[in-house]
């Protein structure tokens, strides 16, 4: 078993390696990053012996975030996150001299008080995948926003009329971008016809369909008087109206 105290700083790590008895075979200042992690693995391999397993390496570190801690967890080391205040109280409790480094106190803590410390749990593969996708999405959104901010600044200096013309579309809309790509200069944009603009807006479903004309109710004609199936001749009708019955 090897115990590691890792006093983390912004650009380096002061580490101390102890065995199960508290003996200190090594101490070093390692750079932050891949090179520092590699040197730490070299120290472990050098002082851990042939039978040492990754789970037999126990590290105490003042932060559980960042690629350094995750790199130790990924290879199978047991990593404990220890608050700096806990380190200070540990020093007071055991009367550790101020000359002793925090790395020494951290190594002592994972050797003596490990059951009172919090191990850092490694993320599941699914959680790591979600984190990667979420970070990629965030990066894309930020880049998209910054790109359109630069576009807006450029248009304000070179083509301010476009900001007014496309105010209702917003520059992030695909129809506004198509119109800008089609006619990117003020002179070219002035030649756009209403038909061309309408075609772009319709292609992107920006235009509302015109409502169909309301249907008019059918015209109703006044009823016609029924006709006699055997109409009289004109002369017979006249005679019928003028005939006077005998007294």
Automatic annotation (TrEMBL):
UniProt feature, compositional bias: Basic and acidic residues: 230-239
Location of the region described as Disordered in the Swiss-Prot/TrEMBL record: 203-247
Domain Transposase IS110-like N-terminal: 4-160
Pfam families registered for this protein in UniProt: DEDD_Tnp_IS110 (PF01548)
Entry protein name: IS110 family transposase
Organism of origin: Streptomyces durocortorensis
């Amino acid at each position: 078993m090897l115990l590691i105290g890792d006093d983390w700083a912004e650009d380096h790590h002061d580490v101390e390696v102890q065995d199960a008895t508290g003996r200190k075979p090594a101490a070093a200042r390692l750079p932050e990053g891949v090179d520092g992690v590699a040197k730490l693995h070299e120290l472990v391999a050098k002082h851990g012996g042939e039978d040492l397993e990754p789970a037999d390496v126990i590290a105490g570190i003042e932060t559980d975030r960042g690629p350094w801690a995750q790199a130790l967890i990924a290879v199978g080391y047991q990593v404990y996150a220890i608050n700096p205040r806990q380190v200070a109280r540990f020093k007071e409790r055991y009367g550790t001299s101020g000359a002793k480094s925090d790395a020494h106190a951290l190594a002592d803590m994972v050797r003596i008080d490990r059951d009172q410390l919090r191990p850092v749990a490694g993320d599941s593969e699914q959680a790591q995948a979600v984190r990667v996708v979420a970070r990629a999405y965030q990066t894309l959104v930020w880049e998209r926003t910054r790109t359109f901010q630069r576009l807006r600044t450029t248009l304000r200096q070179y083509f301010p009329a476009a900001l007014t013309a496309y105010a209702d579309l917003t520059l992030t809309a695909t129809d506004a971008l198509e119109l800008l790509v089609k006619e990117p200069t003020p002179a070219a944009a002035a030649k756009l016809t209403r038909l061309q603009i309408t075609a772009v807006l319709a292609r992107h479903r920006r235009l509302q369909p015109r409502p169909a004309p309301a249907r008019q109710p059918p015209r109703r004609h006044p009823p016609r008087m029924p006709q006699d199936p055997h109409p009289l001749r004109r002369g017979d009708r006249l005679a019928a109206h003028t005939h006077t019955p005998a007294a």
